[in-house]
Amino acid sequence: MPRPLALAVPEGRARPAPPREALAVAILAALAALCPFLLGWISLAPNRLLSPRPVALPMQAGTGIAVACFLTGCLGMVLLSRRGRGLPWAELSAALAFAGLLGAIGLGAGAVLGEAPRMARAMPAAGFWLAVLLLALGAGSCAAGRGATPSRFLALAVVGGGLLLALGLLDGLSVVREGQARGEELRTALVGHLALAGGALGLALLVALPLGLLALRQPRLEMALMTLANGFQVVPSIALFGLLMAPLASLATTWPALRSWGIGGIGAAPATLGIAAYLLLPLASGLLAGLRVAPPALVDAARGQGMTPWQILLRLRLPLGLGVILGGLRLAAVQAVGLATLAALIGGGGLGRLVFQGIGQLAADLILLGVMPVVALSLLVDAGLAALQARLGAAGSPGR
Amino acid sequence: MIRFEGVTRRYGERAAVDHVTLEVAKGRLCVLLGESGSGKSTLLRMVNRLAEPSAGRVLLRGRDVAGIEPETLRRGIGYVIQSVGLFPHWQVAENIATVPRLLGWETGRIATRVDALLALVGLDPARFRDRYPHELSGGQAQRVGLARALAADPPVLLMDEPFSALDPGTRRDLQRELRRIHGETGKTILFVTHDVEEALALADLLAVLEDGRLIAQGRPAQVMEQDGERSVRRLFGEESMAFHRLATLPAQALAQPEDAEDDLPVLPAGASLKQALLLMLELGADRVAVLPDGPHGGGTLYWADLVRAA
Predict the structure, then answer these.
(1) Does a structural domain hold residue B234?
(2) CATH number, domain at B263?
(3) What mean pLDDT is predicted for residues B35-43?
(4) Is the pLDDT assigned to residue B226 strictly greater than 70?
(5) What is d(CA B11, CA B9) in angstroms, rounded to the nearest whole number?
């Protein structure tokens, strides 16, 4: 006797509606998959001075696997994002697509160069860059589903890229060659950049923390501090560096001993000072807003229980405002990494040196060599502090 | 226990508190009654030095509070405010333990004390100890606020409109609880409110403030006397004076000492004439039986006697 098949399908098992982000992710992934095919994977320039032209991606085992990874990643984004629970996986799938794409052009560049003249240089074509942008946007849409930044995509993309680089699969790319040729210079620039950004952030914290704490109680000091911090934001950074030149130069002339500490009209000292001036606003306003998260009635209750001002600060204001304070720190840290690029203009070193040198020589690879670590640093700092903010900020207000 | 001696607090030209002299004996529940801006909160906050007098002095157990370091002073005084002010990132137990921890009690002693206090304010320790403030209703939060104020067993409690933000039913429950806790612990309580009925339900000693001046003080019945000051009558509402006055008088005082008939409605012991009136209105009765209580014998309370008293 035939069984009633209709009963075998339980009722009410309708598929859950795809999340809002599904359509955006699908479109972005599809476009990303198309881009390299339409606009080219890699370009070849006969030498450093001539313009590059797109060339076909040489098909062989390595590139084939890489392209397959790329397309699988894109397809994965489309399929996984159809369920709300799949969104984090779709984000990781975007990272897979990125790694595949990077591997494809790395291997492709190596193969193309094998048949090209010795001076030839291979670099990513427009299709690569556009696809990377679309993948990042797609990952961003996935992360928006859980109300966060695409930190998982970034982390995996960085790990994947680093792995490919370490395995030597990207050695054919001109920017990697440029980096290898200037390895020492790049390291110095990176260290200098970190020192500039870190030093400026430290200096700004040194000023903003005590003044912010004092300003909490003294409205007039708060007004002065915020006016000053806002004022710095209005001055263009080059102008600020210029303005700092004269007083610092005269200081160094008056006390020559200062010169031995690197203080003078140009160099790292005025650059650090200038950058620190810009960081004052995000730090001070974040700190003050954070310290005011605890409502006045709560502070009154704490005083009434016999807490000292110090205890109120440490046990009440800081834990409750930590999320907001870290938000200000995050903004300032990212700004510091970006602004440190400009230090090269007044001889302050940092990754900006490579960028400006590249601009001077019309060498796109050199510019890229300077810019990419800046972007990576910014993203890293932002993602790191965002994670810290999410963890500590949530601890301050459980269940909210 | 608490003595205000010619206390004045000026903000610029305006005197928020103007030459107030008031004494609250040990174990009394003193209600400071007044409209907003009458200076009642400022007066209260001068006891734990959240406000400082411009002139005069505040004595606590005979000592001028100005001579005691503010934090030390405050740890020895319970403090409850309208917005409760529980620390949102601490669990109920941690909130209650605020002052004991500041005083450096050992953890075992604190845990025992917290459970005892939760039980005292009518919350099951096992259920409430580990909750966060946002998991509490308004009434539960203020019970925790009261427990926190009592944590280090201070002899004095300051309560600044503690029940004003609660709905009427919860407010009456908490008023009853406060009277019970006051009876059990014998604390000296200074209680600020703008609610006339709340003041009459709680006060041993009533102090009425207007524009920073103390315009009446005494037992509630004294303050409510028929020929009282005009501004007091205005505050209580001219037309409901009689009703409020009944709330200050015990029902036993007017009861005829006779054996009550068996089928009369019975008034609970310790009830006021207001409650007797409400019971008569409710049941349409012209007399009720009054149970004996303390010095008073029981008897029958007649409608005519009650009306004459008002």
Answers:
(1) no
(2) 3.10.580.10
(3) 90
(4) no
(5) 7
Give whole-number Cα distances, A151 to A143, A155, B230, in Å.
8, 6, 71
CA nearest to A123, candidates A170, A80, A169, A173: A173
Are residues B174 and B302 located together in one domain of the fold? no
pLDDT value of position A397: 52
pLDDT digits (tens, 9 = 90+) for B156-167: 999 999 998 888
Residues B102 and B173 in one domain: yes
pTM for this prediction? 0.78
Q: For the segment A254-269, what is each residue's pLDDT rounded down to a tens digit? A: 777 766 666 666 777 8
**Backbone phi and psi for residue A55, each to the nearest 5 degrees, phi listed first:** -125, 160
Average pLDDT in the A152-163 region?
88
Does the pLDDT of residue A5 top 60, yes or no? no
CATH code of domain A183-396: 1.10.3720.10
Q: How sure is the predictor about B260, in pLDDT bands with cuts at 50, 70 and 90?
A: low
Domain that holds residue B145: 2-218
Both B182 and B280 in a single domain?
Answer: no
Please count the structural domains in chain B.
Answer: 2
Domain of B45: which CATH number? Answer: 3.40.50.300
Residues B291, B144 share a domain: no
Write out the residues of chain B at the interface with chain A, using a CB-CB cutoff of 8 A.
48, 50, 70-76, 79, 81, 83-89, 98-99, 102, 132, 134-135, 148, 158
CA–CA separation, B251 and B271 (whole Å)? 6
Please name the member of A304, A397, A400 whose beta carbon is closest to the beta carbon of B48: A304
Would you tell me the crossing angle of helices A183-215 and A219-234 to the nearest 10 degrees?
150
Chain A residues closer than 8 Å to B135 by CB? 399
- Alpha-carbon distances of B83 from A296, A303, B16, B139, B201, rounded to whole Å: 10, 14, 22, 11, 22
- pLDDT digits 0-9 by tens, B188-224: 999 999 988 899 889 999 999 989 999 888 888 888 7
Residue B233: inside a domain, yes or no? no
| B83 interaction partners in chain A (CB closer than 8 Å) | 295, 297-298, 301
Nearest alpha carbon to residue B247 among B276, B218, B269:
B276
Tell me which residue has tokens 């840290």: A333
Residue ranges of chain A that CATH labels 1.10.3720.10: 183-396
Percent of chain B's residues with pLDDT above 90: 53
Residues of chain B in contact with residue A304, where contact means CB-CB under 8 angstroms, are 48, 50, 74, 79, 81, 85, 158
| ipTM (interface predicted TM) | 0.82
Instruction: Pick from A299, A300, A305, A313 the residue to mutate for testing the B interface (most B CBs within 10 Å).
Output: A305
